[in-house]
Amino acid sequence: MTRRLVHGRPCDERGVNAPGVPEERPCRWRGAFLVGPVALGPAAGAEPSGLCLTTCSHWSYNVLEALAVLREERSRLDDEIREQTFNLAGIVSPLETPDDPCPTCRGPMLVQKSHRHGVVTLEHGSFLASETVRVCAAGCRSSSGALVTRRSEVLPLWVEPGSVYGYDIEVGVGIQRFVHHRQREEIRSNLMAQYGISVSTGEVSTLAAQFIQHLEALHRQRAPAIREALARDGGYPLHIDATGEDGRGTLFVAYAGWRDWVLGSWKISTERADLILPHLREVAVSFGVPRALLRDLGRAVIQATRAFVKELGRDIPIISCHLHFLSDVGGDLLEVSHDKLRDLFRRFKIRPSLRTLAGDLRRRLGQKLLSLRQDVTTWTEGSTEHQVPEGPAGLATVRSLAQWVLDYASDVDHLGFPFDRPYLDLYERCRTVRRAADAFLRRSIKDGFVRRSRKRLARVLDPVFAESSFSEVAKTLSCRAKLFDDLRGALR
Description:
492 residues; alpha/beta; Nucleotidyltransferase, domain 5; 4 domains; 16% strand; flat
């Protein structure tokens, strides 16, 4: 009778332990298949009489260890299958070259050579392209002096001459890098996981740079089509702007306003009129003369646009950007008061004190905090008696009030100062919660910790009412903010 391992122990065909093995009892599976040394299931044709993984007394491996082995084996097999599926290395793909006559003398063309070229694309993976090169039998030469040759018409559609990685890989890397803002290592991992293609981080950088170069070349090639589309719209307003960081140059951008199309972008050393003007001329030549110019209030841009319109000799309106205009006016109108209000909040440490209070209450409530959120919501929506609840619900309520003040940034429109006045929003929230705290303090409560917590919240916000400087600065800022908003509404 044949013996073999079942669950790591020697057993016969009936599943009975071999002589000398302790606990000679039939195995609950009368046969099993093995992965390495571990039996995981019934052999072909065997009928299980129970779940052997968890109930068999002969199990010598921990179940979790067995599952780990199984997952590791599956991962290894997946990697092998993926590699075999994607890897076409060594497979030769012959690329025929048309046997047409010489374009110069119309005579026959002979095979000069055949060579193999390694190519990697997303569509085909890695393979060897066998290309045949033909030359004119009569030795005709082109205007450059080189022999008239003919190569494969298919290969240049896949990959740039002299390159290994195809255009589809270049486009995929470019989109991941510049549209989805992926890091180089993330792009490498994605190419390996989805396509089985291995590239270095340096190659990812090279492909990303090539993508930008080819995208710029394609943009220039399609300029006539873009010009026709803009002409069908009745022309276009040209938006221009320059931005940069100290010591890193300036990026100048030309933008078709109605279409939201970038017509060109250039890196210039600094924002000067003599550096901007040539690019304005280039835009006019490639895409037509704009119907209007929209610019910021920078001195160099103003000079460049005036010189550009003067050269054209046309009556083209030059419009100042309302956003830049309002930003300048708002800065002059609001900045001093807003900075004073910010300094007051910092001096009295109101935000740090609120964060400390919210953190202390969060730690005291612990895991109960999640379940108490609904109680706080119910109290917020239905309470009319200005009474904080007793117990944990009361602590959660006090914490939510402190947190609501700290969330003042949610009131902004994310346009930046002076369109957003975050410290004025913080001031208004502090006043709202402090008035609510006054109403809460007038009501007696038995829970001592809730009582102390609401008093602590009131003490943190006391300076907003007690210090006259707060109200004076806030009043000035509010009045000026209303003037600014009225101006903004009028310009709209």
